[in-house]
Amino acid sequence: MKANQIAGRCVLAVVFVYLLIQIYYLYNHIMPFADKEPWRDFVCLFLIQSVFFAVCIFAVFVFLFLQQFIHDNTSPFETLLVVNSDGKIKREVLLSDKHSFLITGAKNGKDIFVESIYNSESSRHLYGVCNLVKGCWYFEVMSKGRPVGLKRGCENVIYRLKEGMLYRLTAADVLYADTYKIVMSERKVTGVPQE
Asked: Rounded to an integer, what distance in angstroms lies between the CA atom of residue 23 and that of residue 30?
């Protein structure tokens, strides 16, 4: 599928360049010498058609660029859930307008928070930072004292994450910080109790 998209875009690019060359040639080399009326009308019509098709192809490229830009800046997940050891959802954070956030915790390890990078509480322990890059969430561990774990999909193993490394998060992944689970959710959960 990706190869077909790249091939289609290359064909469009080649046609666009060809049309630009054709427009330049018609306007600068043919039009000045087309003195007679039928021949001049024919050249004008051909020039107008070339400009029209070039503008259409350019519009397609602008649309594809905007679509890619929106995709790269939109979270694939709708919410982030913080779940305690009893399996209760303690917090639900909407991700639709976020591009980065911190995962912090109380010093005693009994609570987890999702905070803005710009308005974080300095008294809390920092577990790590999540950043949205080209439509994917990446988690980087910043915790020195407390371990952070990651369970990948259906695996029954929780991996201890290394400080300073980036980990790409998918819908099936679960982050562990102290006794809490942090889960990315693709659909909105309604009626979630908040503390």
From this structure: 10
